[in-house]
């Protein structure tokens, strides 16, 4: 068990990757120390450009992230990568396979990759993603790439965390457009048709352009790019656009606004999960409440009345964790 | 707490699928398995550091196990990490003592049942956390 000493913080500030790894593990597992860390003043920076990479399963997100990192590393940037894969709801296990597509990054310095399992979190990210990003940002990463799980229709969490959202799709999205139309298509700042070596890429670009032209975003018209990630083709253009979007955010004042919203959402999220935890604890452990719960189970009393009692009971006890 | 495993094929055993199969089975045993594909010791240890691995799993078809296996333990210790290092695949039993002496916690042959491996990991990781 590690504890949060000045020495540890000092090593962290000196860019000790072993310490970074250990601290991230605490944060990933949402331990006491992890929360101490997230409250520490050395961990409040918010300077990194956070780029979410999302899109359907197998579209090439990891391959693309690998190529983007390679190029950025050659330019001397410090990079954090967070890859999220789904947890099996049945076994609670997960196979985190994104690193296989990034093998060549092992020889570049200043790239730190962390894989996270969703652990029951819906929305395309792990519950600890924002926390992990906060720590990587405190480690002075210039840019943090965030690969979501392969998404279908309702995974929007990446929006809350990212400055720039890249949606990676594949050619022939005529059909998938139908399923994605529900909203996920509207979320991106950049659209990528990857696997453009496969037939139908130009049609897909055309389809996307039509859709983008209908969209309500006024001040930033999302570019549409073709890439072949496996051959590093189109990757430089994509990087240029990612940088251009960052400049746009900065110049338009949205950079600060995004951060304000993010802090607000985080406050709300953290508060809600604290309260949920307190409520769950009480419902599990308080004998008086337990008795009432049994009555609700038997249908002798309605859940609304007992719910009110639980809340009243909690406020009387004063909320403590 | 969830057990995190970093699994790699040692060196250049490209055609060896065992590592991926075992990764899937450990996932089904409830672990989080980061699969690296083929990597060399230095990179495996770096990945384990980044991922906060409780366990490093090394898979090999043999040939390189006596050099590369112990190398992983050596680099790991030099960097101040203390993950449990296990090996699997095709390794002659005569070499087991040497590997264990070098700090490999256990070696699993191709016939090993997955429950056996999973139980070994759970027992060892739990005592180390406690
Ligand atoms: N032909 C072709 N194949 C590609 C291209 N980019 C990626 N692939 C292949 O597509 C497959 C999936 O790539 P990944 O990078 O793992 O895709 P992903 O979106 O990260 O997948 P998940 O994380 O599972 O959702 C791999 O076999 C890649 O080699 C491309 O531009 N052209
Ligand atoms: Mg991937």
How would you describe what is shown here?
The complex is a heterodimer of chains A (321) and B (130). Chain A is α/β, with parallel strands linked by helices and 321 residues long. Chain A folds into two domains: 44-252, 3-Layer(aba) Sandwich (Rossmann fold); 263-320, no CATH class. Chain A contains twelve helices and eight strands. In chain A, α2 packs antiparallel against α5 and α11 (287-297) packs antiparallel against α12. The two termini of chain A are 22 Å apart. Chain B has 130 residues and is of the alpha/beta class. Chain B is built from five helices and five strands; from the N terminus they run βαβαβαβαβα. Chain B has helices at 18-28, 41-51, 65-78, 96-101, 114-129; strands at residues 4-10, 32-39, 55-60, 84-89, 106-108. A five-stranded parallel β-sheet of chain B has the order 2-1-3-4-5, with helices on both faces. In chain B, β3, α3 (65-78) and β4 form a beta-alpha-beta unit. In chain B, α2 (41-51) crosses α3 (65-78). Chain B starts with a strand and ends with a helix. The A-B interface holds A 17-18, 20-22, 24-25, 28-29, 87-88, 91-97, 99-100, 103, 106-107, 112-115, 117, 119 and B 1-2, 4, 23-24, 26-39, 42-43, 46-47, 49-52, 79-81. β3 of chain A pairs parallel with β2 of chain B, so a sheet runs across the interface. The complex binds guanosine-5'-triphosphate and magnesium ion (MG). Guanosine-5'-triphosphate binds at residues 57-63, 98, 101, 150, 194-195, 197-198, 228-230 of chain A. Chain B: Its cofactor is adenosylcob(III)alamin. Chain B: It holds the Pfam family B12-binding. Chain B: Residues 2-128 form the B12-binding domain.
Summarize the structure.
The complex is a heterodimer of chains A (321) and B (130). With 321 residues, chain A is of the alpha/beta class.
